[in-house]
Amino acid sequence: MSEINLGITADMHVHLRDGAMSKLITPTVRSGGISICYVMPNLVPPITTKQQVINYHKQLNDIAPETTFLMSFYLSKDLTPELISECADEGLIHGIKCYPAGVTTNSKYGVDPNDFSQFYPLFEVMEKKGIILNLHGEKPGIEEKDEINIINAESKFLPALRKLHSDFPKLKIILEHTTTSEAIELVRELNSDKKEGDDITIGATITAHHLYLIIDNWASNPINYCKPVAKFHKDKKALIDAATSGEPWFFFGSDSAPHPIHKKQVHVDVCAGVYTQCNSVAYVAEIFDKYNKIENFKKFISDNGIKFYDLNEKILAKHKGESVWLIERENKVPEVIANGDVEVVPFKAGDELKYIVEWRKN
Ligand code: DOR
Ligand code: ZN
């Protein structure tokens, strides 16, 4: 293998921030090899109005007009069924992101996953309009007796996913940035009745960094610290197996989450988030290569996500004239990326990767 045509690529979970950070990071969606990305709404304040969606989309599009940005709302009491319906009809949003309060960056405006009932009127509209519910699948620990910690928070969340699927079987739900073998097994179980060609309603994104990391790697290095945290060898193995399997419910969502260097290299309140955007495709390709599964790479990085999001021809048309090519060639990850206002340390800074991407006209 020396070159593969990946066509139109998709990263279904990115954090592009705003201000100076956004100016630095947003162009790296494309330089990392991604055509279409799904943008997280956890800004300050979070994105909960139509005008915010329009403004944020314009801001990103002005910075990087060749990239397609799919937009989301932040699940909160401020959303109404009418608003969701209107924004869905106008093609302004593709999903709504649910953050359990307190589990990660800017999640303090989030929800209590023990009781989703107040959002059921929203879920009904989403189910009807094909709007995706994106779950940050960690249960917050409120009292000591809950025995919840960063290692078991994802597993403890899984019954909530099971219940949501049983109450809204046609609602498309994505368990974002899965990190445990239990989550992978549940996603497989909930899809076990599916035959080829059936509509899939339960999906899971897998990041690049969780294909590399275990607990030891972030315990000694805050650059590798993110939420949900990387777990154990058996979990990493399950994630690699799922990502490389070609199964249509597993697809790429980098959860690339940049933080300024001075918020990572500290000894208190380390920000959660690993920045992978500038080499997102290359990091993942290396894993597929290592496990001799490169033939399934396009499914993971392109086809499965585009299919789950049911992206229409109008969205894809913009990208039909060019393709992302994966090239086997040495590619050194920068030590830092910076624009004078802000500095970010990428994942595996300074390492040599085996692959690089190029954009070519068709
Ligand atoms: O590590 C993370 N960083 N996990 C998240 O869920 C949020 C993200 C961020 O926004 O920094
Ligand atoms: Zn995220």
- Rg, Å, rounded: 19 Å
Query: What is the assigned CATH homologous superfamily?
Result: Metal-dependent hydrolases
Heterogens: (4S)-2,6-dioxohexahydropyrimidine-4-carboxylic acid, zinc ion
Describe the oligomeric state of these chains in a short phrase.
single chain
Q: Would you tell me the structural class of the helices and strands? A: alpha/beta
Q: Please, how many helices?
A: 13
Low-pLDDT segments, ≥5 res? none
Q: Which series of helices and strands comes N to C? A: EEHHEHEEHEHEHEHEHHEHHHHEEEE
Q: What summary fits the major beta sheet?
A: 6 strands, parallel
Proper CATH architecture: Alpha-Beta Barrel
> Which descriptor suits the 3D outline?
globular
Extended strand count = 14
Task: List the domain count as a whole number.
Answer: 1
Just give the CATH class.
Alpha Beta
Distance between the termini: 20 Å
Helix share bin: 25-40%
Overall average residue pLDDT: 96
Portion in strands: 15-25%
Written account of the structure:
Strands 5-6-7-8-9-10 form a 6-stranded parallel β-sheet. The radius of gyration is 19 Å and the shape is globular. The relative contact order is 0.16. The chain contains 13 helices and 14 strands. Helix content is 33%, strand content 18%. It has a single domain (3-361), classed as Metal-dependent hydrolases (TIM Barrel, Alpha-Beta Barrel). By secondary structure, it is α/β, with parallel strands linked by helices. It starts with a strand and ends with a strand. Helix 4 packs parallel to helix 5 (120-129) and helix 6 (153-167) packs parallel to helix 7 (181-190).
